[in-house]
Amino acid sequence: MTRSIFDHTYDFVRAMQATLTRAEVADPFLGSVHNGIDAGAIGLYQIHAESGQVMDVHARVSVEFLDEYETYGRTDDPVLEYVVENQEPIDSSRLHRSAWASSGARAALRVGGYEHSMEAPLIVSGRLFGTINFARDDSRTPFSSADLSAAGIVSEHLSLAIERAHRFEQSTNRAGILENAIDRIPQAIVIADLHGRILFRNRAARREWDAPIGDDGAIGLERVCYLRTR
Is the pTM of this model over 0.85? Predict the structure, then answer.
């Protein structure tokens, strides 16, 4: 049985669940989203919410095409303008024909051999984080309603993955800051879980004494003042 565009889209959604950092998010997007959304060009942009400046880009297109788009396409892109203003997916066929035909974005796309454009917003913590971009050449039909719905699903789950990754990175940073702070305390401190297994020993503990460790990795609790964690 032929799989629908939404079956492939949910394959992408499942792949997103395995990502932990923002750097990891781009790989499954670029590597699998084309199975659900047929496009010759695919991109993921991080943009500054206020200025619109591009902060980061991951794309499956040529560098020359990216340069053309950034030179004169981005500042005159009615698809992007709609996405930013309405925070919902749109494709170029649903815009007023003259607005798209005379735009700098269409001129830039044609340099790369593309004609049809589709974009969807990335919303992280209630703020515009970036966009996902798709393009097809002029031998293909414009993006369909199903493509637009799939782009909406992808952008929603990509946004959630980015937000989750951002929180994970923040938690890791906080843990590192806490470990550094504890490491500077002159008293020996051991952090162990509820089973007595060592999670962390500060510099003073490592230098001044060794907590007795059993074969199972547990410390002798009767000899140690420790911080318990779950």
Answer: no
